[in-house]
Fold this sequence. Notes:
By secondary structure, the chain is of the alpha/beta class.
Amino acid sequence: MSEATSEPSVLSEATSEPSVLSEATSEPSVLTETRTARAAQPVAGGEPVLDYTADEMRTVxxxxxxxxxxxxxxxxxxxxxxxxxxxxxxxxxxxxxxxxGTLDTRPELLPLSIxxxxxxxxxxxxxxxxxxxxxxxxxxxIDVGFLSGxxxxxxxxxxxxxxxxxxxxxxxxPGSGGAPxxxxxxxxxxxxxxxxxxxxxxxxxxxxxLGHGSGPDDRRRLGLTGAGPLRVITDLGVLEPDPETRELxxxxxxxxxxxxxxxAETGWPLAISGEPLVPTPAPTTRELELLRSLRTVGx
Length: 299
């Protein structure tokens, strides 16, 4: 199903753990993807950083967005890599909670799945899955949750259910898992996806996890306590909801990327933030060295 350029199929960002939609199976590792590698970039003082890939840029940008002391609901794949990178860089007090019930876990290696024993071994405590959702997630005790999907629309609604008509889809995806609860109840949602025209659509084929619905009042009207998606980090840049309309707008560009490139991969007339676009700083040598030093269980 993947294209010849090694771009993942619509299934590759919706894996067997769809509640947080990790990118751990078909998608190439953030450490090995080279399709859109960036050349070394100068930084303050004139010293160039190491060469890096588009996926490494995406991972570093996601890690930077996690604040110290926050409680983060983590999925396998890029979310786990970004969260553990953040904890080693600027956020030593970041509290990582995995869906399997491990609280404040501090793994030395990246887990292969949410059930990996290394998460329990390094956790402050382990609780049941119902307690994770009923006590931690639904009452709003999680500050930020990661999500991804096969489709994302202009209001941050996510589809991980079907491509095409529900009764006769062209592709049936893994489904929701706990993603709707994460989208509804986390203090905020961070979405991480590759920016492709077939994924960034004007309207999703099925709303699995609600973003901002059809506009600014939908979440309040439905009684959802979380703020919804406040940041979408892709391999091209950063999108954030407009304060008035809640439609996703372009607020940042990664190094070497143009507005025209982002618009060409977006299925709606993408607006640009009224503020000057924020250029994403290239990954520093330290960030890349720490990222590349992370090893997965069994490697």
